[in-house]
């Protein structure tokens, strides 16, 4: 079709085989190199275009972009001394972590999702930009460094499938802590010498570094840049009960709303599990309000906001209360999902065997993140046209009414390959081509205003 348009300046109407000339049209196209699922483009098509090859951004350019973004953020919310001591380390470490992951963690048949691009760096920065000085306590540099550790683990580490790859990423972060943030690496002796921490002294006489002493270095009131005398201690920052975690649901009250919640350090796994138990109790008590499942495309009517959007409310998807046990892995999964849901157009792919609790944790995470949970209603004759109508309802709820929504889709909902193309557009650009007519777009824009 494109070749016919470019060669003959028109197309045929299929029903009547009538020639339709197309005038005053300029075609601008973009594509990537073939491979990785992209097909080769015929030279008979590309000969019509003036081809401009855009090489990948250099390391210097990427660091310049990150420095500009972080510089504006740190300069706006933090003091000049914090900006001067952390701007370069944060910007350089984000880019170098991305370049190392791209060069080392290559896609394979068993790890086909190991594909990284500059968007991943922007996601790390998005997490860093979510915090404010009030949530950093008395030591903003230490908190920002911990936040960098956390965001790299969330963006890159959560994608890794083997222990070997996860250990590699932790070692990479430890190396960057030494080369970019100024951590000191000394051998562990029977008695550690006093450790110079820029403007202060931290004494350590322990025979082995524990997590508690490592965190104390990060939380020293005189601390301006992290240094450690034993790099084995940094491993505890990624595992165990006191590992570094951030979230925005710690102090939120579901009864008063979720708009003013802040991104802040989370307590230990034990304390966090108690907080989640309280939220679970609130979730079970609030069935019929926040956290319910709205089925897109459902017939009939119901009261409340769901009926205004044409959705049918199903309390929690079942008539039973949700019973969850908050062991460490479950707590970590909820933290990950809540972080994804609090980001604009955040999305996650949950992989696991059936019955492992993916949907239960996703439903509860939607409540924790303050999102209404919606899913599609499979029915007789359901296909891509009906799926698009359901997505229209979703857009009206999220965009027209301004409500936070989580769309939950499982593998049995994808009954036609054409639905994957729509989901791909929804995830990549936030829109599906040709979904709304001009009249429908005007109505939605008026509602959004």
Task: Please provide a written account of the structure.
With 449 residues, the protein is α/β, with parallel strands linked by helices. It is 43% helix and 7% strand. The protein is built from 15 helices and ten strands. β3 and β4 form a beta hairpin. α3 (59-77) packs antiparallel against α4 (80-104), α4 runs parallel beside α6 (140-155) and α11 packs across α12 (358-368). It is globular, with a radius of gyration of 26 Å. The model is unreliable at 186-233 and 299-319 (pLDDT under 50).
Strand order of the largest sheet: 8-7-9-10
- The termini sit apart by 38 Å
Q: What's the main sheet like?
A: 4 strands, mixed
Average residue-wise pLDDT: 78
Unreliable stretches (pLDDT < 50, length at least 5) are: 186-233, 299-319
Tell me the Rg in angstroms: 26 Å
Count of alpha/pi helices: 15
Which structural class matches the secondary elements? alpha/beta
- Helix/strand order: HEEHHHHHHEEHEEHEHEHHEHEHH
Tell me, briefly, the overall form: globular
What share of the residues lie within helices?
Answer: 40-55%
Secondary structure: number of strands: 10
Residue share in β-strands: 5-15%
Provide a brief overview of the structure.
The protein is of the alpha/beta class. It has 15 helices and 10 strands. The protein is globular.
Question: Topology of this protein?
Answer:
Elements (H helix, E strand, L loop, with lengths): L1 H7 L1 E4 L4 E4 L21 H4 L12 H19 L2 H25 L13 H11 L11 H16 L7 H17 L15 E3 L2 E3 L8 H8 L27 E2 L16 E2 L3 H17 L7 E4 L8 H4 L3 E3 L13 H14 L16 H11 L3 E5 L7 H17 L4 E3 L9 H12 L9 H11 L1
Parallel strand pairs: 7-9, 9-10
Antiparallel strand pairs: 1-2, 3-4, 5-6, 7-8
Helix pairs in contact: 3-4, 3-5, 4-6, 4-7, 5-6, 11-12
